[in-house]
Design goal:
Layout: E1 3-7, E2 18-21, H1 32-35, E3 39-40, H2 48-54, H3 61-74, H4 78-89, E4 94-98, H5 107-118
Parallel strand pairs: 1-4, 2-3, 2-4
Helix pairs in contact: 3-5
Protein name: Uroporphyrin-III c-methyltransferase
InterPro entries: YeaO-like (IPR052552)
Length: about 120
């Protein structure tokens, strides 16, 4: 099985996998019913300070990647998150849902890379 990324504002491409929202903030305008998610793991998202510093500026993405990875390494929720993902991957694909408009420079990409490297 694999980890997939999907923007929560788009029509769901795959409802068969385990759908996991990985943003710290709930996406504006999305109802919990329409989100079609299995779990919201907000504690795994970047800190408010890091998120605000980054501001989705592509020029800051490389540094954001380093800082967010460092946060993941220190976050006490990371092992719990990793265990959840590992268990789900035994049965089905896992879909990380995120709200960012930029599909090339966002925290879900960093998280996916981190998880794949540490599983």
């Amino acid at each position: 099985m694999e980890i997939k990324l999907e923007r929560i504002y788009q029509q769901p491409a795959d409802l068969t996998g385990y759908r996991l929202l990985v943003d710290r903030l709930w996406p504006r305008g999305i109802s919990k019913k329409n989100a079609h998610l299995d779990k919201w793991f907000k504690e795994i998202g970047p800190s408010n300070e890091l998120r605000q510093w980054f501001g989705h500026d592509p020029a800051k993405f490389a540094e954001f990647n380093k800082r967010y990875t460092a946060e993941l390494m220190k976050n006490p929720q990371t092992p719990i998150f990793m265990q959840l993902v590992a268990e789900q991957l035994k049965q089905q694909a896992v879909i990380f849902l995120y709200g960012a408009k930029d599909q090339q420079h966002n925290q879900a990409l960093v998280l996916k890379k981190y998880v794949e490297e540490h599983l």
